[in-house]
Amino acid sequence: MKRRVVVTGISAITSLGCRLDEVWTRVCNGQSGIAALKSFDTSGHRVRIGGEILDWPPDGYFTSKDAKRMDRFAQLGLVGGIDAVADSGIDFSKEDPFRCGAILGSGIGGLLEIEAQHSRLLDKGPEKISPFTIPKLMTNAASAQISIRYGLQGKNMAVSTACASATNAIGEALRAIQYDEADVIVTGGTEAVMTPLGLSAFAALRALSQRNDDPAAASRPFDADRDGFVLGEGAGLLVIEELEHAKARGARIYAELLGYGATADGNHITHPDENGAGAARAMALALKDARLNPTEIDYINAHGTSTLLGDQAETLAVKTVFKEHARVLSISSTKSQLGHLLGASGGVELVFCVKALEDGVIPPTINYQTPDPHCDLDYTPNEARRRDISTAMSNSFGFGGHNGSLIAGRLRGD
After folding, report:
1. Which pLDDT value is given to residue 60?
2. Residue 56: pLDDT above 80?
3. Predicted pLDDT at 122
4. Confidence bin at 61 (pLDDT 50/70/90)
5. What is the rounded distance in angstroms from the CA atom of residue 405 to the CA atom of residue 344?
6. Most exposed: 195, 197, 203, 333, by fewest CB within 10 Å?
7. ∠ Cα 101 105 111 (to 5°)
8. pLDDT tens for residues 355-364?
9. 62 secondary structure, DSSP code
10. Which H or E run contains 319?
């Protein structure tokens, strides 16, 4: 019999702030974190906007020496992990280290370090490459840093499934606890590819919005005038643990993780299945895992990237799974405010689902102005809405055809 798993700690670092409370307040107020980029010169770039973090404070979390040995994505992940652990109140020194782990997702890993060292190679030659290059760029660096920080000796993994990375990481963490391979896991996702190469590479795919003159309005999921996603960066981390373990230490329980489903489109390296068949199957598997009927889901934090094909396919998938109930669901895409955090998006968005359950607030999809006849569900346009919800689903779909869905709910008494 599967063990029950709960969320006891959460954090989010985004372009709208580096503390969860301020991020959540700004999201619910419909604020945008998307602006003209400042961290590097974008002249000559087709796209010059993004969801950039300018005020995050690593000071106090680790030394400047340690910071130099971590790529930005790992720094974001470690800070997010430290915040989530602090929020959970857990003292790992009192835990069995072999029953505690870290499983994080990142779609790309240390791109900033790759660019920096490649430039150094060209300018100064191979003997000047930093010995920290590999430890900084490797995708598992973030989960490793959390494990080292707290002495966690249980499952330690990195999941890299493009934009589904964090959702798949959380799903794998959920499974590990359900099947008694761990008691506590720090999980979620982190991403930092706001670099000249990252920006220009996604622009070359023609995946990004080019609304450079109106950054705050550029990400417009499900709107008829959407023209691509906006690149973002950040981290969303959770501490999840077995229910009785959480109760025994008197932990505050935010929500219960009820179900997880994952599939592949098997279709195209960047385009989603136009009918959303793989996405629909992932949602259906999550419902089956949670032992819920479609009518028992109240809210979906959609993948909703603001791409023409993706938003349409997700809408079709929701209709396929939820049928008549699709018209009753509250749906929103918080990417309208933060941009697309790629491999970190599923972590941040599950955190938002947990907050929605706690506060009874559906965050809005901002910039929704012109209805698209192919996207005709309730996307909570422009303003947050009060709604008493007991269950929420988070969807993440990635390049390569990766699909993941998670379901969280209020803790049930049964």
Report:
1. 86
2. no
3. 97
4. very high
5. 14
6. 197
7. 125
8. 999 999 999 9
9. S
10. helix 308-322
For residue 5, the surrounding DSSP H or E stretch is strand 5-13
User: What's the angle, vertex CA 86, arms to CA 389 and CA 393, rounded to 5?
Assistant: 25
Distance CA 411, CA 407 (A): 12
Provide the 3-class DSSP secondary structure of residue 228: coil
Tell me the pLDDT band of 57, cut-offs 50, 70 and 90: low
Residues 176-230: tens digit of each pLDDT: 999 999 999 999 999 999 999 999 999 999 999 999 999 999 999 999 999 999 9
pLDDT tens-digit map of 320-331:
999 999 999 999
Separation of alpha carbons 404 and 410, rounded Å: 21
Q: Specify the DSSP element, H or E, that contains 409.
A: strand 402-409
Catalytic residues: 163, 303, 340
Q: Which helix (H) or strand (E) holds 66?
A: helix 64-67
CA atoms within 13 Å, Cβ hemisphere of 281 = 13
409 Rama class: left (phi>0) / alpha (psi -120 to 50) / beta: beta
101: nearest Cα among 183, 166, 160, 169: 183
Residue 96 φ/ψ, nearest 5 degrees: -70, 115
The answer to whether the CB of 297 falls within 8 A of the CB of 267 is no
Considering only CA atoms, which of 299, 192, 170 is closest in space to residue 238?
170
Q: Are 74 and 190 in contact (CB under 8 A)?
A: yes
* CB of 178 closer than 8 Å to CB of 290: no
387: helix, strand or coil:
coil
CA atoms within 13 A on the CB side of 396: 35
pLDDT of residue 414: 56
Model confidence band, residue 413 (pLDDT cutoffs 50, 70, 90): confident
Residue 143 tokens read as 């989960």
Q: Cα–Cα–Cα angle for 335, 184, 101, nearest 5°?
A: 85
Inter-residue contact 187 to 237 (CB < 8 Å):
yes
What does pLDDT average to over the chain? 97
Query: Please, where are the H alpha helices in 29-124?
Result: 64-67, 72-88, 111-124
- How far is 133 from 374, CA to CA, in rounded Å? 46
CA atoms within 13 Å, Cβ hemisphere of 176? 25
